[in-house]
Amino acid sequence: MTATLIDGKSFAAGLRQRIAEHTAAMKERGITPGLAVVLVGEDPASQVYVRSKGKQTRETGMNSFEHRLPADTPEAELLALVGQLNEDPAVNGILVQLPLPGHMDEAAVINAIRPEKDVDGFHILNVGRLATGQKAMVPCTPLGSLMLLRDQLGSLSGKNALVIGRSNIVGKPMAQLLLRDSATVTIAHSRTCDLPDLCRTADIVIAAVGRAHFVKGDWIKPGATVIDVGINRTDDGLVGDVDFAAASQVAGAITPVPGGVGPMTIACLLANTLTATARANGLPDPEGLTP
Ligand code: NDP
């Protein structure tokens, strides 16, 4: 391997440490940040995520509130809970774990969260604020990826960045953040032509496709920085969207899976909760936690 390994696990640990320090300082002023996580149903992956979110929230000194509802909960009941959490001053951040059961309208539920408490950054107002360069809550996985990129490269200005994937939770907000940092951004998706050639022109590659080892080593421009967002469960365990063994021979720097972007996502959720708490109390945004 010739590429530098971008160690998201250790970066996230440092970030959580800084969040814990900010939280302790807030508590001295009588403010305890609180994150409410709502899980509907029994999806095993979601249960694991919710457990680790709760654990890490408590470890940084914040209050964690967990609400578990059965899979057949009527949407109106979930909306009523979101309404209660919106009004609860002890709750600064609200996260409704996705995916929701099929009978629920995800967009309606997400848009019922008060935008200031929308720590996932999926509310339509936060999407619009991000797109127009206003103060927003920024989705956690793209925010974490941006932090790793800035740490690795310093300025992203003028770099050719290719985002593979155009989902609302990763690809699109990632592209917005890169654009905001003055990268030249291309978004690829399943209808993109000549993806390998396009990829060979990219100084920065963000892979958010959801297919194991999709991005091949010979697609990578020598020296490029590769951020692998993918999490794919295979017989060989968790693997990313990038053929790590081959790409790491060509790239300048690359994130591993696991241990790359994954740990950054929850750390950024805590960062967003802290930011939401600061804003709710008229305090400046905690340094280094927002884009
Ligand atoms: P989606 O399934 O919502 O989006 C996948 C995107 O990949 C789509 O835009 C799709 O294009 C595109 N795509 C699919 N096939 C191809 C292809 N052959 N060529 C080019 N593009 C293609 O996934 P998400 O954005 O939610 O997640 C992406 C990956 O990131 C998954 O592995 C997921 O598990 C992981 N993830 C990791 C997180 C973390 O914490 N590290 C958090 C969130 C997600 P089209 O729009 O045309 O269909």
Automatic annotation (TrEMBL):
List the pathway annotation.
One-carbon metabolism; tetrahydrofolate interconversion
Record InterPro entries: Aminoacid_DH-like_N_sf, NAD(P)-bd_dom_sf, THF_DH/CycHdrlase, THF_DH/CycHdrlase_cat_dom, THF_DH/CycHdrlase_CS, THF_DH/CycHdrlase_NAD-bd_dom
Which GO CC annotations does the UniProt entry carry? cytosol
Binding positions for NADP(+)? 165-167, 231
Q: Where is the Tetrahydrofolate dehydrogenase/cyclohydrolase NAD(P)-binding domain?
A: 139-279
According to the entry, every stretch annotated as the Tetrahydrofolate dehydrogenase/cyclohydrolase catalytic domain falls at 6-120
Give the Gene Ontology MF terms in alphabetical order: methenyltetrahydrofolate cyclohydrolase activity; methylenetetrahydrofolate dehydrogenase (NADP+) activity
Tell me which domain of life the UniProt entry assigns to the organism this sequence originates from.
Bacteria
Q: Which PANTHER family does UniProt cross-reference here?
A: C-1-TETRAHYDROFOLATE SYNTHASE, CYTOPLASMIC, C-1-TETRAHYDROFOLATE SYNTHASE, CYTOPLASMIC-RELATED
Q: What is known about what this protein does?
A: Catalyzes the oxidation of 5,10-methylenetetrahydrofolate to 5,10-methenyltetrahydrofolate and then the hydrolysis of 5,10-methenyltetrahydrofolate to 10-formyltetrahydrofolate.
Listed NCBIfam families: PRK10792.1 (NF008058), PRK14186.1 (NF010783), PRK14188.1 (NF010785)
Quaternary context: Homodimer.
The family assignment reads: Belongs to the tetrahydrofolate dehydrogenase/cyclohydrolase family.
> Could you identify this protein by its name?
Bifunctional protein FolD
Organism lineage reads as:
Bacteria, Pseudomonadati, Pseudomonadota, Alphaproteobacteria, Rhodobacterales
Q: Which gene encodes it?
A: folD
